[in-house]
Amino acid sequence: MVIVDNATAADLLSRPFSSQQETLSRLAFFLTRSLAEEGVCDEVFDTLEDILGDRAQPAPAQRVHRSDELLVRLGLPLPRRRYQEKATPMLPDEATRISDRFRRATAHLMQVVPHRVATYPTEELRLLVSLRDEQPTPDQAAAHLRRFAFAILTVLDLMGDDA
Length: 163
What we know:
Blueprint: H1 6-14, H2 21-38, H3 42-52, H4 66-73, H5 92-116, H6 122-133, H7 141-159
């Protein structure tokens, strides 16, 4: 952002302006292009890291079975056991805050993507819009936000945004 003094602002406001459609459309194009070059703010990347990073979900605690000790003494391998651990529910205020941030990022991406990609990513943006419009229940908020974050990352990858 640039700060100008009153004299410069008065000079800029007193200049003639054009009402021709061609000039206005060119101006709109260049303003949109400028917006596209800004990319996505760091706040969104921090939120993506919170949702998808190592801090997102603690590792499940190892459950020990009685037979494990016997198998180890006999030199046999332990069986692979899969545990279906429930994700810790996200606080409703936090889920709302993150969801609002992702919705703002989606609106921004919808404006920026056409100027940053060679081929318009129809399916990726359709998924992003459907996730934006979805209203998950509180117990499904964490899973919904993870899907939303992956959809945003997919679009960012297509744009080549590597912040």
